[in-house]
Amino acid sequence: MFQIDPMSRTPIYEQIIKQLERFILSGTLSERDQIPSVRNVSVNHSVNPVTILKAYNELDAKGIIHAVPGRGYFVCEGAVDALSRDKLSLLAEVHRLAEELALAGIPAESLFEQITSAYSSTKKGRSSPDDQG
Amino acid sequence: MFQIDPMSRTPIYEQIIKQLERFILSGTLSERDQIPSVRNVSVNHSVNPVTILKAYNELDAKGIIHAVPGRGYFVCEGAVDALSRDKLSLLAEVHRLAEELALAGIPAESLFEQITSAYSSTKKGRSSPDDQG
Amino acid sequence: MFQIDPMSRTPIYEQIIKQLERFILSGTLSERDQIPSVRNVSVNHSVNPVTILKAYNELDAKGIIHAVPGRGYFVCEGAVDALSRDKLSLLAEVHRLAEELALAGIPAESLFEQITSAYSSTKKGRSSPDDQG
Amino acid sequence: MFQIDPMSRTPIYEQIIKQLERFILSGTLSERDQIPSVRNVSVNHSVNPVTILKAYNELDAKGIIHAVPGRGYFVCEGAVDALSRDKLSLLAEVHRLAEELALAGIPAESLFEQITSAYSSTKKGRSSPDDQG
DNA sequence: GTGGTCTAGACCACT
DNA sequence: GTGGTCTAGACCACT
Lengths: 133, 133, 133, 133
Description:
Four copies of one chain form a homotetramer. By secondary structure, chain A is mainly α. Chain A is built from six helices and two strands; from the N terminus they run H-H-H-E-E-H-H-H.
């Protein structure tokens, strides 16, 4: 399920978090679904179980997944909404980045392009009028 | 000159780098100007000289400032251009962020707002005099 | 692995850099290989870890090795090519030296001898098997 | 007389040494000639007299120039020969450089080119067939 | 005064 | 175990 790059500078536990979030936001994992067990991920990706547990715990604390002792981890009801709200904080980061780029004399249009490109290539961001009918 | 928060999660040497880059891009420090001496910053901000040196060295490696042992550090000629080019890499980060926000269902307009706001509050990004008429 | 002379005029961190570069160019260390850990080198050669880190960081910045926090340092893919390109800048130093020797009236032949000698004693520079026939 | 770059990373005292050596080897300064006084150089180039003295002292120790208390510094008889002999040690540096370049896979021809170029552009190194007749 | 190297030792995050 | 940041303090070279 996961694609883990042990040579990356982004910590493994963060790679797992990011990917679980994507799975949930994109619908690959639905609310109430069980997620891969710690042991399962551990053996399949040769990752220390402690590392996986750290990722799961962090998502548990944010109310995205929850542990059922003896059974495993499950996606919370309302996880999608919780995640969406959570991501709103990234707008501040967009602002910070924009300030830095503005100061460097890079035109705002260059940023707009990146955003348009990102939104047109992302499922949820794509306009899908057909779905309404 | 600097505003250092030793409790911040961003390392002190990175805080110094960021701020020096701002000073150079905003014109507070001009090319060929001498920048505050390692010792000066050290005593004024109660930061270990090695920490400041680390920041200065990193900017030296990027061709933004250069050391003249026995005399001090100076802003390189062409530092502004070098910095601007360097900052272009942040556009990739904008893209990455936009993808994440798109997936979270946050409308592109929210991002555009952040950018417009950031650009209008930044000197270099501010509208030209003509707008006043 | 390293041969460190704390009394040398060349800083310890430069000695480490030079030797790592040799190991990589000569194939003693291959691309993707892990290099000795900071702590390992520290205890084996009685050198402060910060000094070793400084050497490793410099090679990291040049794209020769890269850090994976929690796991160690590894030789980058393409490190040999990167190093070769990097060394091209030494040709300018050869020119500078040659000018100085020319002015001192030392015949060019003396320099040619040094080069021939150096190239015949270096693996990569050594003549190919065909020459034996 | 001197061309001093206070922004250079090569120490000012070394710049002075290098240039005096060139002047002597090229004949701009002849043996027994007086060289510019410390005070003179100091005011003309805004260099601390201590720095100039350091350069002169080093050449004095090598037997290239000598101080006549109350009168100034003079080029020693035999200075040209002394310098030529001194420069022979640079051949070792050529060897070291050649080894490094050989290991990096740079062809010996590239080094030969540099040397040929340097020798053809240097007065003393230039062939002067007329002298033989 | 300036920058630069190094040590000893503490403490942190990630695996 | 791994790398990374920081301090306190010594000591060096150059101006």
